[in-house]
Amino acid sequence: MSSLAPRRREPGELFGPRFTLFADMLAVGLAATVASLPLITAPTAFAAACAVLRRSIREDRPVSMGEYVGEFRAHGPRRVLLAGVAVFAAVTLVVLDLALAGAGLPGARPMSWALTAVAVAGLVVALRAAGDPEVARGWRPALSRAVTRSLTDPRGCGLILAAVGLCVAFGWMLPLLALLLPGPLAFAVTAVELRVERAHDDTGSGG
Q: Nearest to residue 148, comparing CAs of 113, 200, 86?
C-alpha cells in the first residue's frame, strides 16, 4: 500500500518532488495535446492524462511517456471512437441550440441560459468521468459514477469549474500555454477526485 505523503528531497537533489510533479504535469499536458490532434481522440487523451497523474500522485513516482501511451491504448480503438463521437455530437448539438436560441425567437433568452447551464453541467460531468480510475473499462459506467459524485460533491464541481476558468484565462492571455493546459486541468480534476476518495476512506475508517 503506497503512502500519499510527499517524498522528502534527497541530499544533493536539485529539485524537490513537487517540482518533479509540476514538470510531469506539463509533460503530460503536452502529450495529451499531441494525442488530441485528430480531435476525436481528445476525450481519451485527457482521460489518459488523468490516469497517469493519478498513479504518479498515489505512488509518488515520476511519469513516463510510455506509461501515457499504454494508458491511452488501454481504452481500445472502439472506445476512443465512441467517446470522441459522443463528445463532438454533444458539442454540436449545444452550439446549434444556442444559435437557435439567439435567433430572436420568443423565449430565446431563458432558453439560452438553460442551455448554457446544461452545457456547463455536462462539461463538469464529462471531466469527472475522465478522472474516474475505471474509465478505460467503459465511459458509460464512468459517466454514471460521475453524475453521482457531482450530485454529492457540489464543492468539487465548483473547483473543477474554477480550474476550467483559469485554464481558459491563461490560454487567452498566453496562447502558447494552450499546448500545456490539458496537464494542469487533468491535475485539477484528479486532485478533486482523490479528495473525494480520501474523504470516503476517512469516513469508512471512522465508522
A: 200
| Contacts with 28 (C-beta within 8 Å, 6 or more apart), sequence order | 49, 52, 53, 63, 68, 182, 183, 186
| pLDDT tens for each residue of 8-56 | 544 433 344 567 888 899 999 999 999 999 999 999 999 999 999 999 8
**So what's the pLDDT on residue 200?**
64
Q: How far is CA 116 from CA 106, 111, 112, 113, 166, in A?
A: 17, 9, 6, 5, 19
DSSP H or E segment with residue 95? helix 76-101
Rounded CA-CA distance 16/25 in Å is: 15
Here the cell at position 134 is: 475505471
What's the N-to-C CA distance of the chain in angstroms?
Answer: 21
Distance between CA atoms of 128 and 192, rounded to whole angstroms? 9
Distance (Å, whole) CA 49 – CA 101: 35
Phi first, then psi, for residue 28 (nearest 5°) are -65, -35
Distances (CA, A) of 50 to 46, 53, 54, 66: 6, 5, 6, 15
Instruction: Find, among 69, 75, 86, the residue nearest to 136 by Cα.
Output: 75
pTM of the model: 0.85
